[in-house]
């Protein structure tokens, strides 16, 4: 790359006023509004970049010192901090080199709501995600098409500026990231107009998700490489989906078992009956045996949720609730009284307190 002083046509000892005067003269000759030729445009960029460096006292000092400023300058002979750290801790000070623009993208966490029916056998869903994707204009290079990064004139590609300062310990070597290239070792004179030199843009994309059978609320599904793309086209992060199973009006879940309540009329509970109910995965025939009591549980094997880690399915447990009629016709009341007078039964008596039907069902569901 051409020397900045040569680009501006000044001596290395030129004053700030001489540098400014040279830049203004060249800018008037090469400005795109005055000279539209491609060669003039390229020279105008070089001239502007040279002036930006040489007009800043600190950048000009670094440029004049070069990439190895402070090394072997003939002074002092004292060990620097880098040498001390290397001797005691085996460090590798000032040998890291420039950092890469390409970095891994961040992970993302989203909530995924699924129906209770979906988790019996699993389901595939398509979700839309607003995330960072690779810039199609520059394909992650961060540069305008047809251009490429250029070596930084200040650090000469090292990504850091080394200085020698005097201290009580002698000459001490210090290193700091280059302020011009921010430690990358290269600069981008022609950034991509689409991503503004980021190598990625925000976009909405659709991702297919396989929700496994048996998942429950709070479980997180990891999708490697489905997070956002990293800066400068770096590798994608991961996508995590936190599952939330929606509430169902009829069925609830206890582990791998499904729970429901079946309301049975008093006559059916006495005489017994068979009925068909609509389960989450099809119709089921339920037998209510004669003499069924409230809080009895009917278990239908292998009609629950598919086990997440294992084989087979849980059970469907149906709690019985005997419905006692509250309004009887005159004839119905006579029939019930006749039925009661013909039976010998114990008088009502106390037993252990139960917190309603749901308390009974809970105990029986868990112990059945």
DSSP summary: helix tally: 9
Largest sheet: 4 strands, mixed
Q: Could you tell me the number of beta strands?
A: 15
Structural class: alpha+beta
Average pLDDT, rounded to a whole number, is: 83
Helix content: 10-25%
Order of strands in the sheet with most strands: 10-11-15-14
Could you give the distance between the termini?
Answer: 83 Å
CATH topology of the domain at 252-345: HSP40/DNAj peptide-binding domain
Into which percentage range does the β-strand content fall?
25-35%
Structural notes for this entry:
The chain has 368 residues and is of the alpha+beta class. Among the domains are: 1-55, DnaJ domain (Helix Hairpins); 108-134 and 197-245, HSP40/DNAj peptide-binding domain (Sandwich), CATH 2.60.260; 252-345, Urease metallochaperone UreE, N-terminal domain (HSP40/DNAj peptide-binding domain), CATH 2.60.260.20. It contains nine helices and 15 strands. A hairpin with a 2-residue loop joins strand 12 and strand 13. Helix content is 24%, strand content 27%. The protein has helices spanning 4-8, 16-30, 38-54, 57-65, 81-89, 118-121, 266-271, 330-341, 356-367; strands at 108-114, 123-134, 150-151, 160-167, 170-177, 186-187, 200-211, 220-223, 239-245, 252-254, 257-265, 273-279, 282-288, 297-300, 316-323. The model is unreliable at 68-95 (pLDDT under 50).
